[in-house]
Design brief:
mainly alpha; Rossmann fold; three-stranded parallel β-sheet; globular
Length: 90
C-alpha cells in the first residue's frame, strides 16, 4: 500500500467478516496511513441498518470507525444517513 490509503467498501466488509488475508494485510499497515471515506462509511451504515445481524455489525463498524480517520463528514452523520436511507427503502 502507499503512504496514505483510502480503504474501499469491499476491504472494510472483508475486515469486518474477519477474512484472514485482509486482516493480516491491514494489521501490517500503520493506522496513521489508513483513511475511511465518508461515502464508504455511509454505505456501511446503510448495510448495518438492513442487516439481519444489525447489532453485531454495528458494534464491528463502530470499532473500525473509531480507529480510522474519516475523510468527509463524521460518524454520527453517517449513522443518521444509514438509518434514513434504510427507512426510505422499506
Amino acid at each position: 500500500m502507499s503512504a496514505l490509503d483510502l480503504l474501499d467498501t469491499n476491504i472494510l466488509i472483508a475486515s469486518m467478516k474477519s477474512r484472514e488475508e485482509v486482516r493480516r494485510r491491514l494489521e501490517i499497515e500503520p493506522l496513521n496511513a489508513l483513511r475511511l471515506s465518508q461515502i464508504v462509511l455511509d454505505g456501511l451504515e446503510f448495510g448495518v441498518e438492513k442487516s439481519a445481524y444489525g447489532e453485531r455489525n454495528r458494534a464491528r463498524l463502530a470499532a473500525l470507525a473509531q480507529r480510522l480517520p474519516v475523510v468527509g463528514l463524521d460518524h454520527e452523520t453517517a449513522s443518521h444517513y444509514g438509518r434514513i436511507r434504510a427507512f426510505l427503502e422499506r
